[in-house]
Design goal:
By secondary structure, the chain is mostly helical. The chain has 3 helices and no strands.
């Protein structure tokens, strides 16, 4: 349940990031939220849930890298 909740929070943060990027302002706090969510990854023992969470984690990593580029942290 904890990992499913983390997945939902990750999707919320990604949506917030998308909105910020479209509006031309991606808050730096979102970068910290992406980091925190990435650190919280754990296996659940449910192969299907783990696969979905892994896809979300990949998206988190990609968006974090893109945000770093935008913030000049490359």
């Amino acid at each position: 349940a904890r990992q499913a909740r983390r997945g939902g929070m990750a999707l919320d943060v990604l949506e917030e990031l998308e909105k910020g990027l479209v509006l031309g302002r991606a808050p730096g706090q979102l970068r910290a939220a992406l980091d925190q969510l990435q650190r919280g990854a754990e296996l659940t023992g449910d192969a299907q849930l783990d696969a979905v969470l892994q896809e979300i984690d990949i998206r988190l990593a990609v968006e974090a890298a893109k945000l770093d580029r935008q913030l000049g942290r490359v």
